Each structure stands twice: as C-alpha cells, then as structure tokens.
Amino acid sequence: MSGLPTNADVVAAAARIEGFAVRTTLLTNPALDERTGARVFVKPEVLQRTGSFKFRGAYNRLSQIAVADRAGGVVAWSSGNHAQGVACAAGLLGLPSRIVMPQDAPQIKVERTRAYGAEIVFYDRFRDDREAIGRAFAAQHCAVIVPPYDDPHIIAGQGTAGLEIVEDLARLGISLDTVLVPAGGGGLVAGTALAFSDRSPVTQIFCVEPDGFDDHARSLISGERECNAELTGSLCDALMAPTPGEITFAINAWHLGGGLSVSDAEVADAMRFAYSELKLVVEPGGAVALAALLAGKIDVRSQAVAIILSGGNVDPELFAKLII
Predict the structure, then answer these.
(1) Which has the higher per-residue pLDDT, 108 or 202?
(2) Which of 66, 190, 285, 316 has its CA 20 to 30 A from that of 215?
(3) How far is 309 from 45, CA to CA, in rounded Å?
(4) What is the rounded distance in angstroms from the CA atom of residue 247 to the CA atom of residue 1?
C-alpha cells in the first residue's frame, strides 16, 4: 500500500507535539521485575494529557490542518479516549469539535470530552453507523474528519510514545528485546513499530487485545483483516474496534512479532497490580499489556521488556469494584 507513514513521520510528529504532549517518564518496579523474571520498563501514558496516548495523534493531525480549512472545525468518532484527545487538541488550536460517541460510553469519558468543549452526538452501536453519522456532520459543517486510528498523521503521532521509549533507553545504553502494546484499531502499536523499525529493528513488538476481540492476532495469522464476532462484551471499552484498520494492518502485518490476548479477569488483576505496586490508575483497555506480562502470555524471562499503559480514564465505581 502506498502512502504509509514512516519512521521519519514519527520523528516529525515528535517535533510537532513537543511542548503540548507530555513526555511520560519510563518507570521501573522491583516487584514487577521479580514477578516476571524480566527487566521491565513501563510507559505510563495514563499520565499523558487527557489521560491517554490519544492526545499525541490528535494534536499531530489537527495541527496540520490548513488555516483555510479550520473554520468548520473537526469531527471524530470514539468511545472516549480519542474523543478527549481530539476535543482537547481542538481547544488548544481554537477549532470547534463534534464527537460521535456510543450511548454506552463510560460517563467519565463523556463528561471529560464535553468539558474540553466538544459537542457530543450519541449513537446506538447496535443499530447505527458511527462513521456515516460523522461523515454526514462533516459534510454539513464543512468539517475535517479525524479518524481514531486509520490515518497516517494519527499513527505517526501515536508512534511518538514508542520513539520516546527508544530514545530514553538508548541514553541508558539499553536495547529492548520485547515491547507489548495495547491494540484496538492498531494505531498505537503501528506507530510504535515504526518508531522501533529504524532505531531498534531487532526488538520484537507484540499487540495485546481482550479475549474475543483479538482481531489483530487472528489477522496476523491469516494474513487478512479479520472481524470480531461481537461489537461489545469486554471490560476494555477502548479496545473493541470491529477490525484492524487498513493502514494499521498494512504496517502491523509487516512489523509485528505476533498478537496476544487476555481475559477480563487478567485485566482486573493487572489493574490491581498497577494500583497497589505502581500507584497508578489504569483503565481496563490501558492495562492489557501489563495483564499479558503478569499472566505469562509470553516468556520474557531474562529479557529487557517495555509495556505501554495506554490510558487511565476509568469510571470510578468500576475501578473501585475491580481493585478490591
């Protein structure tokens, strides 16, 4: 496929978002190393602006909209984290934003999106086509569509999280064996793979998904974009994209070492561990990479490993229930 983003695009995105996105600091934890038998580095994107990595891609995309095209603002569709990232970036750039969100989106994500100044349009994920709704609004308002993952600028922006991992560890003289990255539509893991492809091509990149929504893992095996049987049914509301993106899969099929999946129970265990040992609040979808590591889904003993905690926007009542 032509027009795919490259490592150079990730580097350019890093310069573009500097001063706006948080450069989250890699964390280590003795209890995590002891439990896994590995040297583990944690990228806490829960501490990112808006509480997830999504701000990176959103700001990279919106900042490149031509001045002549800004009057109509932007339109996006999302269950919550991309919604917040777009709404926040739009506010910083002085753009109006409209976000199409499912009626069952976590209330905290709805409230935060609205607080950033976005107009929210709800849809029924079982009956409505969110993309059709979004495109209709974009046509009506002459707005720019900002996809949640299948866009070169979004992917490059998300890849800055991976680039920071490579750069920070290079300063310490550390080369990673393995990186585990949450995957919904695949933008974060695709961008991370691009970041590593030039600077650490021997590092194995794995995507991690919820059980029953492992479309990336199955697609990597079959060589074709597979679809999930259900639209909902996981704790990980942020990772229930129906199928890998066309652009993201073209990148991931070439660069990833494979895909892993975790159960809701394993995700809850990871959230408890993050809270008790790392002192971090992590949402279910943001905890899948940690869950895979703790559950031993891959043998990382004696390796140097990085994981991304991709988001921390979890409903307080659900969080309290899960960590008890």
Answers:
(1) 202
(2) 316
(3) 6
(4) 8
CA pair distance 167, 176, nearest whole angstrom: 11
Q: Which candidate, 125, 116, 146, 150, places its Cα nearest to that of 134?
A: 146
For 34-56, write each residue's pLDDT tens digit: 999 999 999 999 999 999 999 99
245 phi-psi bin (left φ>0, alpha ψ -120 to 50, beta other)? beta
List pLDDT tens digits, range 75-89: 999 988 999 999 999
How many whole angstroms separate alpha carbon 304 and alpha carbon 36? 11
Name every residue whose Cβ is closer than 8 Å to that of residue 138 and which is 6 or more positions away in sequence.
72, 75, 144, 145
Query: Please, are residues 274 and 290 in contact by the beta-carbon 8 Å criterion?
Result: yes
What phi and psi, each to the nearest 5 degrees, are found at residue 99? Answer: -120, 130
Q: Is pLDDT at 103 greater than 80 in this prediction?
A: yes
Residue 31 burial (C-beta neighbours within 10 Å; 0-12, 13-18, 19+): exposed
- What six digits make up the tokens of 319? 């969080």
Amino acid at 186: G
Under a CB-based contact definition with an 8 Å cutoff, are residues 198 and 156 in contact?
A: no
Which residues have CB under 8 Å from 62's CB, separation 6+? 74, 86, 89, 90, 93, 95, 146
Check if the beta carbon of residue 225 is closer than 8 Å to that of residue 249: yes
Percent of the chain with pLDDT over 70: 99
Task: Give the pair of three-digit tokens for residue 184.
Answer: 């919904």
* Residue 77 near residue 148 (C-beta atoms within 8 A): yes
Alpha helices in the chain (DSSP H): 7-17, 30-36, 54-62, 81-93, 107-115, 130-141, 152-171, 187-199, 215-222, 246-255, 264-273, 288-294, 316-323
